[in-house]
Amino acid sequence: MQNVLVTGGAGFIGSNFVRYLLQVELNVRVLNLDALTYAGSLENLKDLPDESRHTFIQGDICDGKLMDKIFSEYKIDTVVHFAAESHVDRSILGPAPFVQTNIVGTFTLLEAARQAWAGEGIGKRFHHVSTDEVFGSLNPSDLAFTESTSYEPRSPYSASKASSDHLVRAYFHTYGLPATITNCSNNYGPYQFPEKLIPLMILNALQGKPLPVYGDGKQIRDWLYVEDHCEAIYLVLKNGRPGETYNIGGGNQPCNIDLVHELCSILDELKPISKSYKELITYVPDRPGHDRRYAMDITKIQNELGWIPMHDIETGLRATVKWYLDHMDWVEMIMKQERFSDWLEHNYTRRGR
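Above: the chain's sequence. Below: its structure in token form.
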């Protein structure tokens, strides 16, 4: 690794990975490409560990000419592909951007890498970051997802990510592109855009707003602290076998309502008000096709690369709440970048009307 292209590097997970990589690889140069849509922000890239080794370009992964130029000018040898439309609710309301970015964008990036590396895979790596949602939904008694679990996507978002995974595998088998894939569970932590469950609950609570919980709140997710995810990706880049897929999960599987209760308890302790934040919990109609349970079997990455998550759900949530409490200036800047309250009204308050 010398010249690393990180796509979507101004987003939540991407910006955390840029910070992590600059800390652990002191000779790496990072070319950070992001379209700066609503979920990406230059606010996420302030105070990087070594800004002299970081270059930001605003651009779209669907722009083939730009991709070719970047590979040529910056002599890219490693790609870490985060760029994606990633919110299930938004994919239900408008699936077209998910098809364009997640499928067409990944294809365009693969083509650029194939042409630039021209069959020379030594010292090169194309890493594609995917999701556990491609596997579909588990019943309470089902075994956790493994790398060989059949794909069964159930939303436009997960279907688009499944398509991109298949493209990456096809480029490995057909063209010999040195590619790896990781399928991760639900991430949380610093710099997460506040449409996602955990930051939404934290920020709504701090503003005294309702805490909207879908359906009965019994949906189960495997929660992964973002710094643990970054470490896992780094180990796959260093030692993962080309052509292989690795599951990354946090080993934390509370149901959503229990997660919200835990967040409220932490806020009650760290930012107490006259009543418990739990009184703000409000149940709203469930979203269409809502997967009931996800769970990740991380045996493969554990055995092959020695990775295990360092944060359990309690320590991770507490660190996350503290980060948001300490970075309300970041929150204010992010909230100004889009008519965010209008989207929340459309997605939650009007749901089921």
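The first helix runs from residue 12 to 24.
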